[in-house]
Design goal:
The protein is α+β, with helices and mostly antiparallel strands. It has one domain: Gcn5-related N-acetyltransferase (GNAT) (Aminopeptidase), CATH 3.40.630.30. About 25% of the residues lie in helices and about 30% in strands. The protein is built from four helices and eight strands. It has an eight-stranded mixed β-sheet, with helices on both faces. The mean pLDDT is about 85.
C-alpha cells in the first residue's frame, strides 16, 4: 500500500495510532445508522463476528483519510480483496465531512489505485438500499448498480426492509 493524495485528502495506510479516531466513528449513532441501526460501538477491539468492518489500525487494506490541509481526521477507506482479482470498497467518514464530496473523492482515488497498482479487475461495494447518500457516492465514483438483495437482518434497521444494493465496476478496458 502507498500514500494516495487527492485535492482534499491524504490517504495513508492505517496504523495503531488511528485506533482512537476509528473508534470515535463507531460511537457516533449517525455514522452507524445504516450499519447497525445507530447503536454506538464502544469496544476496545473489533468484534470478530461483526457484519461490518471495525478497523483498529492494524488492517492491511485500510487507509486513514486526513485533510490535505491541516491533517485533521476525516475517516477511513478500504479496498478489501475478495479473491478472483476482485476487491470490495468500503468507507466511513466523520459527520463533519459529509456532503462535501470527500467520500466520492476518496473512493475514486482508491478505485484508481486498485486498478493500476492493486491489479484488481473488479471493484464491488454494497450498502443498504435506503442509504441514498452512500448510493450516490458509489455512483459518483463510477460503480453501477448490479442487483438488490433482500436481507434478513439480525436486528431490524430502519429501511432494512428495502434490502441491500450491490454495485460493481470493471477495470476500464479490461474483461472484469
Amino acid at each position: 500500500m502507498t500514500v494516495l493524495q487527492t485535492k482534499n485528502l491524504t490517504l495513508r495506510p492505517c496504523s495503531p495510532d488511528d485506533r482512537d479516531d476509528f473508534m470515535d466513528l463507531e460511537r457516533d449513532p449517525a455514522v452507524m445508522r445504516f450499519l447497525n441501526g445507530g447503536h454506538a460501538v464502544d469496544e476496545v477491539e473489533g468484534d470478530p463476528d461483526s457484519l461490518f468492518l471495525m478497523p483498529r489500525g492494524r488492517e492491511e487494506h485500510v487507509w486513514t483519510a486526513r485533510s490535505t490541509v491541516g491533517g485533521g481526521f476525516i475517516g477511513w477507506f478500504c479496498l478489501w480483496p475478495n479473491g478472483n482479482r476482485e476487491a470490495e470498497l468500503g468507507y466511513r467518514l466523520r459527520r463533519a465531512a459529509w456532503g462535501r464530496g470527500l467520500a466520492s473523492e476518496g473512493a475514486r482515488a482508491l478505485i484508481h489505485w486498485g486498478f493500476s497498482s492493486g491489479r484488481y479487475d473488479t471493484v464491488v461495494a454494497c450498502t443498504m438500499a435506503a442509504h441514498g447518500a452512500s448510493r450516490r457516492v458509489l455512483e459518483k465514483a463510477g460503480l453501477r448498480l448490479v442487483r438488490t438483495v433482500a436481507v434478513d437482518w439480525a436486528e431490524a434497521i430502519p429501511g432494512g426492509e428495502q434490502g441491500e444494493v450491490h454495485y460493481a465496476m470493471a477495470r476500464p478496458g479490461g474483461s472484469g
